[in-house]
UniProtKB/TrEMBL annotation:
Its EC number is 1.11.1.27. This is Glutathione-dependent peroxiredoxin. Residues 2-168 form the Thioredoxin domain. SUPFAM superfamilies: Thioredoxin-like. It comes from the Bacteria. Keywords: Antioxidant, Oxidoreductase, Peroxidase, Redox-active center. InterPro entries: PRX5-like, Redoxin, Thioredoxin-like_sf, Thioredoxin_domain. GO terms for biological process: cell redox homeostasis; cellular response to oxidative stress; hydrogen peroxide catabolic process. One of its GO terms (cellular component) is cytoplasm. Thiol-specific peroxidase that catalyzes the reduction of hydrogen peroxide and organic hydroperoxides to water and alcohols, respectively. Plays a role in cell protection against oxidative stress by detoxifying peroxides. It comes from Paraburkholderia eburnea.
Length: 169
């Protein structure tokens, strides 16, 4: 498992782009994790799946609600990463009203999640390989804070807990 002080692995994540913007096409776009975190402070939180109960009722809404507080603490971007495809993540983002606050990043093949060492096998529950629940603060590609949940828990990866590790800039 990745540790505090280590550099994020370079992997590709996908984001559904639904509005015209420079450098992006409409539909799924691929992004290099290394390029997207270079020179930025980014919060990345991972969770088992889009539209699942705790993820939809608590995890994503907390980051959407705390967006301004994270910005005040010097965070440039917030990413939600899940082992789902870009279309599912886009639909979930619309449902959760994340636009302009949380980037909904798809890790459809779990390549990034596996490279982090944060995968879990939920095949017995019909979900296949998924992400553990975690939250991290990245500074220029380096992990500064990493909070990984115990199985079945939601105590340290929530927005309030991660925000408490940051000091205003």
């Amino acid at each position: 498992m990745i540790k505090q002080g280590e550099t994020l692995p370079d992997a590709t994540l996908f984001e559904l782009i639904e509005d015209e913007r420079a450098g992006c096409t409409l539909g799924p776009n691929s992004f290099s994790v290394r390029e997207q975190t270079a020179g930025k402070r980014v919060v990345i939180f991972g969770l088992p799946g889009a539209f699942t109960p705790t993820c939809s009722a608590k995890h994503v809404p907390g980051y959407v609600e705390q967006y301004e507080a994270f910005r005040a603490a010097g965070i440039d971007e917030i990413w939600c990463v899940s082992v789902n495809d870009a279309f599912v993540m886009g639909a979930w983002g619309r449902d959760q009203r994340t636009s302009g606050k949380v980037r909904m990043m798809a890790d459809g093949s779990a390549a990034f999640t596996r490279a982090l060492g944060l995968e879990q096998d939920l095949s017995a529950r019909g979900m296949g390989i998924r992400s553990q629940r975690y939250a991290m603060v990245i500074d220029d590609g380096v992990v500064k804070t990493l909070n990984v949940e115990a199985p079945g828990k939601f105590e340290v990866s929530d927005a309030a807990s991660l925000l408490a590790t940051l000091s205003p800039t």
